[in-house]
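TEACHING EXERCISE
Course module: macromolecular assemblies
Task: Read the component lines below, then compare them to the predicted structure of the full complex.
Student: A.B.
Group: 4
Components provided:
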Amino acid sequence: MAILWHREEKEFHLHNDYLSYIITLLPDDSPALAYIGRPLSPEGRYGRLTLFEDRALSTHQPGLPPSFCLEYVPREYPTYGRGDFRFPALELVSENGMPLVVDLQYRAHRIYNGKPCLDELPATYCESDAEAESLTLVLEDRAHQIEVHLHYTLFAEHPIVARRVSIHNSGSKPFYLKRALSAVLDLDSADWDMLHFPGAWGRERHLVCKLLVPGLQSIGSSRGSSSAQHNPSAIFARPNTSETSGEAIGALLVYSGNFSIDAEVGSHGTTRLGLGINPFGFSWKLKSAETFETPEALFVYTAQGFGDMTHHIHRLLSRRLSRGQWRDRERPILINNWEATYFHFDEHKLLSIAHSAKDLGAELFVLDDGWFGRRNDDTSSLGDWMVNREKLPEGLESLARKITDLGLSFGLWIEPEMVSPDSDLYRKHPDWAIGSPLEKRTLGRNQLVLDMSRSEVVDYLFDTISGILSSAPISYIKWDMNRHITEPVSAGLPPDEQGEFSHRYILGVYRLYRRLTQAFPHILFESCSAGGNRFDAGMLAFAPQAWTSDDSDAIERLKIQWGTSFFYPPSAMGAHVSAVPNHQVGRITPLWTRAFVAFFGAFGYELDPEKLTEAEKAEVREQIAFYKQWRGLFQFGDFYRLEGGRSGDGSGNCVAWMSVSEDRRRAAVLVVQVLAQPNPGFSRLPLRGLDLSFNYQVRVRPAVPVKNEAALRYNEGLRRGDELAYVGLLLGGDGWNGVSRGDFASWLFTLEAY
Ligand code: DGJ
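Instructor-supplied answer key:
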């Protein structure tokens, strides 16, 4: 790995075994992307790859050749106003509202080992300087006294470039940022598909793929959180890219607030990608000598398909974004009482759930919503974080002790960012809620949002939540956030700084997370937002796992976990077995199918174990015992999407994926057949990631066994890796006759090198 500076050619070459990222300085001394792709020789010079040409209707700068026209040039941090009519990365207005035409010219640079830490924003990091090399390009607009630092880090072991920007006001007067993207990537082709992950509550991150067309295509959030509607991630792939071959560029923002990801196909076959804080509603007053830091953007390049992209980003996020004691530790198997009781429980009920769960093998009991204030439904008490003595007369500590005495750890649900209008906190501090107490405030789930942009609110929450965490043996926290933000203004900000609110809100959330995770390093935090409404890389920096979706139906989870898996590792995905009929869709699926799907994540149960039959309890006992032996593989193995249906989005009738351990000695393969088919044909499922020369002992567990099981007869036994990779497992056949097996059948194959 190296970052080279070729002084004569004014060229930077970020280079490792997987990738070259080449920046050249243009005739106006602004930086341009000459190349991103497979590694090119570090000996070469590549400035000529930056295309520009005089075209009809194009504009050019006095003193520079007419061929140098900004309209088509690939620019690293473009501004508007000098002939580049695509969307800019940076937009500024002066103190009195005058738009500024900014020329960012190279002034200096610094190349250094390692990667610096950020104070306020989450970001990837290095544990030793040998893991990465960084470049900072210092750009300047002398006339307006603005300095812009473009920061790049190349990781030695990954085709990943991290980018972010610092914008500094070196003048004496303030100006306003209207847009300050984290990165722009100008590609010299329009031949890309855009894959992204839209959704809604209960159906988060469903993969869609669309052809880029001329003009601007954009996704984003203006909801105060990254949202279930769009995820701050997208892939730009060549139309023929598959899981195993072809070029793709993954783009991921390490951010949990309002974001946008834009792609603009220009009139001459170029594509501009941009990602960062959503410019809609954003403005930031940058006073003299102040610096604004953008969130970090990650670009992953692959020439070997989506699978390769996934493996690199999974490793980086799980090992060098998540942090703390739980980063590399196997996660406990939990039982959560939410769907078992909702708000209606008492200590006796909780203890009997915990007792049964312990008997089945669970390791962590999580007490969900409803334990505090007068919270018997969702109309009151958020903000009053005192135990509800009617439900828990002996208090939280006593309950936690009784649970830990059973041999389970104890976990607790909180929703610190919220306040109910019917709460003591709100009665005392009505001005702490977002919006004005004198004007209409929009409710969501009957609740208001606390103004996390105000330091006194964050301080109060830190003290209150710390008090709870110190009061009882708590080893896990589920941090929920159950509504979107409306009336996004703050009583703590002057009128001309109100555009800062949404970003300041999320900085406040990060501050509280940072302080709590530092003060209580032994606690495993799981982020949650009405399911997966804030499932993003920003959150993963503090909470190494997140509740993937409130929808725990095994069949719906196929699409959700499929889409989520493109960027986010299985260790980050909370995945639970819940009761049937499923509470979200009413579907009845086999208990083993529910477990098989949930195995590929941070596993747990969300049901009343006391309502299980003896036979079901025996199955759950077996599932938990099995997961304990295999969870390292499920949580930290390399994840391969094998079969997702015709549109490749996990919505097919047969969906299959697998995990392989880093040493390739163990693997587990899931096959789900959604609807039964009479007399199905045979098919083969080639496996991936195995060592071709190893002999693997293959075993199969059908969720719903039938007589004369073909899966057992044809697949079980000792099989070489090459046969499994080139021929594969047999699906279909006599015993696979869905008529006798029913809908929602599944099979879990385990492979162990012999
Ligand atoms: C939404 C979460 O996603 C659920 O799991 C549960 O914790 C409820 N909130 C509780 O209000």
